[in-house]
Fold:
Amino acid sequence: MTVVDDDLWSAIGDPTRRRMLDLLLMDGDGTATSLSQRLPMTRQAIAKHLGVLGRVGLVHASPAGRERRYQVDEAQLARAVAQLSSVGAAWDARLRRIKRIAETIQRGKDQ
Structure:
């Protein structure tokens, strides 16, 4: 069973941060200012969200004049996708077991 990184999933769980990741992936990189022009929030709010994404390693920043340019860490994003796939597979297996149990109970009632 894969260990799930709760901090990583907490960061990804926010729809605004997912949208930011989408934009950064589409554009290759971006700044808090460029993202604030495309999202309905202030530059300061964007910067806070980027800080959360940075703390879990989903984005990396490099200085760009007076701003910081952010890029998605594709290895960390791939790690998150692998965790999601693993969790999904585990739940699929659980649901199959529940279905088998329910079918067994139903067959017992039908007899």
